[in-house]
Amino acid sequence: MNMPAGKYAWTATVGEKGQIVIPKQARELFGIRPGDTLLLLGDEKRGIAIVQKESFTALYEAVFGGDES
Question: What proportion of the chain, given as a percentage, has pLDDT over 70?
Answer without folding.
Answer: 88
